[in-house]
Every structure is written in C-alpha cells, then in structure tokens.
Write a structure and sequence with these properties.
This protein is 21% helix and 21% strand. The protein contains nine helices and twelve strands. It has two domains: 38 residues, no CATH class; 253 residues, Sulfite Oxidase, Chain A, domain 2, CATH 3.90.420.
Length: 312
C-alpha cells in the first residue's frame, strides 16, 4: 500500500508546524513539574484550543463541492440532531450538551496496523490540515441537507498508521460518558458505546472524512464535536460522532443500530432510493430547512465516485 500523500496547494508546510516531539515534550515537562492539573497546563491547553480555532474557516475544495448545491440553513442543521446519547428529541439535543467536555480529547488509533498512536483531536486537525467540502447529507429517516464540512480525508490517518495485511475493516467507537450524556441512562437497553464500521476500502475512499468543523467554525457539541466521521454516500447513522477510538480489524464490527435491528440498519447502508426502509419509502427526502421534497439519488448522488466499490 502506497504511503504517498498528495498535499493540496493550501496545505501548511511541515516546517511551519510545531514538531510533534517538541509538542509532546512540552506536555511531559509540565506533568513532571506536577502542574498537569494546575493553572499552567490549563492556560497551555487554552492557547492550543485558540490556535486550533484559527484553522476555521478553511479553504473550500471546489473539486468536492458542486457549485449547484445550496447550503442548508446553518441554524436549522446545527439545532436538529440525531444524537441519542443526549436525547431522542432532535430539537432538544442542543439544550442538553452543556456538560459535555470536549477538551482535551484523545483519540486512539490502533488494531491491525504498524504504527498505532493516540493524539488529541486538535493535534490531528493541525497535523493533516483541514479543508472545507460541501456534501449532501442523507438521514435514514428520509430527510436531507447540504452541509459545508471542514476536516481531512480519513485515508491520510490510515496511511500514517500503516494497516497490516489482515486489516479488512475499520471500527469507530464514540464517547460513552453517562455523567455528561443524559440520554445514555434513559436508553439502558442500547449496546453503548455507539459503534460503527466501514470496510477498509470504504474508509480509504477520498470522500470519507474525519470532520472537525462545519459552516466555517469548529464543530458544535450537538453535531459531534470535537471530531466525527462523515461518509456522504451512506445514511447518516454510519457517520459516528465524538469519536474516541478508530480500530483496524479483520472482523466486521458489530454496530449499534445493526445490533438493535439488522433488517432496518444493515452494515453496508448505502443510500438507495430503490430499497425502502421496512417502515417508509427511501425514494424521496425532505429538505430539513425548507420542507421541500426531492428525489433521492443512488448513493446520495455519489454513484460516479463510489459505485465501483460494490460491483460483484
């Protein structure tokens, strides 16, 4: 597998980025001084968070942003969320994320790979660089949106850790903090934490993103801060929010929704207007901000890019 990464013209050169060794040594130095829980480290982390915010707004990649797509209203999209860890009421999620702590946010990348590591979400965004892409978003509940995500290709991270020959799937695990996420306690029968998965070739596809921002700003908590997955040709529940682990594995991961109802939420879950959900049609979708109903496209409009992944 090639490890060459083509950098876009706006990419920040490595000689302008703080070296990883220096960054980590600074944190180690603070810990050794016994200041890990004190004001100095808090100030340091605050400075890092401020630096991370400078990544937004990012330059839009027009190759992945069709000019004919009209963006969904920001206020509507950022206050209408499926995030059951907080609430099953889409419009209530935004009011229940206040206690959710997203800094610092370590993400563990491990499993069948040569170079596993753990890094903060802000570190990942700075290391791989971010860009804005305008994607269609399609919920399995037959509503849709057009969203300007900011992030980087998951492929870049996977190439860094170097998947082993036996790696066939990528498993995504999200935060499981009942003390901060009140919906978890209310849904005791759910197999928490929320887990999702992709085939390795799906995860390596250029359309698949790790997202840290939306509408030119860092991700709001209700939209999956500080880092989430976005797979635009699949139903929205495949795009796990608030990720804490990314694991390469040789076995197909057991996902939360497939575990609960495999006939309604199969592992593959590509957007397909010809295949109805057991309880409703998928032929059309309601635009979440305008209420307009439009025809759903195969693979959510990305058939030219991804249909070849599923040819038998």
């Amino acid at each position: 597998m090639s490890n060459n990464i083509l950098r876009p013209e706006w990419h920040l050169p490595e000689n302008r980025v703080t070296p990883e060794r220096a960054y980590r040594n600074r944190r180690k130095f603070l810990r050794e001084l016994g200041l890990a829980n004190g004001g100095l480290l808090a100030a340091s982390l605050a400075a890092e968070a401020a630096a991370a915010k400078k990544l937004y707004p990012a330059q839009r990649n027009i190759a992945f942003s069709p000019p004919d797509l009209k963006l969904t209203n920001e206020r509507v999209f950022t206050t209408y969320n499926n995030f059951y860890e907080f609430s099953t009421d889409k419009e209530a999620v935004v009011d229940r994320v206040g206690k959710f702590v997203i800094t610092p946010w370590p993400v563990k990348i491990h499993g069948l790979c040569e170079q596993p590591f753990t890094a903060d979400a802000d570190e990942l965004a700075a290391e791989f660089g971010v860009e804005e892409r305008v994607y269609r978003f399609r919920c399995v509940e037959a509503w849709g949106a057009v969203v300007p995500w900011t992030g980087f290709e998951l492929r870049k991270l996977l190439e860094k850790v170097k998947p082993k020959a036996g790696a066939k799937f990528v498993k995504f695990v999200t935060a499981n903090r009942p003390e901060q996420m009140p919906g978890i306690a209310r849904l005791r029968g759910y197999p928490w934490p929320y887990t999702e998965g992709l085939r390795l070739d799906e995860a390596m596809h250029p359309l698949t993103m790790l997202v840290t921002g939306v509408y030119g700003k860092p991700l709001p908590k209700q939209n999956g801060a500080p880092i989430r997955l976005v797979v635009p040709w699949k139903y929205g529940y495949k795009s796990g929010k608030s990720l804490v682990e990314i694991e390469l594995t040789d076995k197909q991961p057991k996902t939360l929704w497939e575990t609960l109802s495999p006939e309604e939420y199969p592992f593959e879950s590509n957007v397909d207007p010809a295949v109805p959900h057991p309880r409703w049609s998928q032929a059309t979708e309601r635009q979440v901000d305008t209420g307009d109903r439009i025809r759903t496209l195969p693979f959510n409009g990305y058939a030219a890019q991804v249909a070849s992944l599923y040819k038998k």
